[in-house]
Amino acid sequence: MDMLLLNKFYRVVSREEKDNNIVFHVELLPECDVYQGHFPGNPVSPGVCNIEMIKECVMQVVGRKLVMNKLDRCRLTAVASPSVCPTLDVTVHVEEGESSVKVLASIADAQQQYMDFKGEMI
Fold first, then answer.
1. Structural domains in the chain?
2. HSE (CB half, 13 Å, CA atoms) of 7?
3. CB of 114 within 8 A of CB of 91?
4. What letter does residue 6 receive in the DSSP assignment?
5. Model confidence at 1, in pLDDT bands (50, 70, 90)?
6. H/E element holding 109?
7. In what order do the strands lie in the sheet with 101-108?
8. Other CB atoms closer than 10 Å to residue 10's CB: what's the count?
9. % of the chain beyond a pLDDT of 70
10. Cis link prior to 39 (omega < 30° from 0)?
11. pLDDT-based confidence at 40, cuts 50/70/90?
12. 90 touches 57 (CB < 8 A)
């Protein structure tokens, strides 16, 4: 599978099943070029990279390459930064249909939620 950001932008520390969800404990990698340019001296995790991270976690769950098909909700509720929150939980709930995968996901740490996501991938 083609993972654009895995082991460049973030790495998976561990993965567990919890309440019908899969929780990926991830570490943000501050040396990534994305953080160097967004923004120098004050790195933040771009929303589009957070969406890609969710997609890549879902791909690991279903075991195949996916593309975004539909985005119903994507709330950026706080700014994630490798200097402020170096580890995050990417929680995904996946419902596989015949032709698509419905996804509910969030990115959070113990203090707050950074993204709330609902969408469909094919």
1. 10-121 (3.10.129.10)
2. 2
3. no
4. B
5. confident
6. none
7. 10-18, 21-28, 87-96, 101-108, 113-121, 68-76
8. 25
9. 100
10. yes
11. confident
12. yes
**What is the C-alpha to C-alpha distance for residues 120 and 39, in angstroms, rounded to an integer?**
30
CA dihedral 14, 41, 31, 25 (to 10 degrees): 10
Q: How far apart are CA 81 and CA 43, in angstroms?
A: 6
Q: Is-contact 80 114, C-beta < 8 A? A: yes
> Cα(104)–Cα(83) distance, rounded to whole angstroms?
27
Structure tokens at 96: 């596989």
Chain position carrying tokens 């098909």: 69
Query: For 69-89, what is each residue's pLDDT tens digit?
Result: 999 999 999 999 999 999 999
**Tokens read off for 83:** 């200097």
Q: Which residues of 21-32 are buried (b: 16+ CB within 10 A; e: fewer)?
A: ebbbebebbeeb
Phi and psi at 104, nearest 5°, equal -115, 130
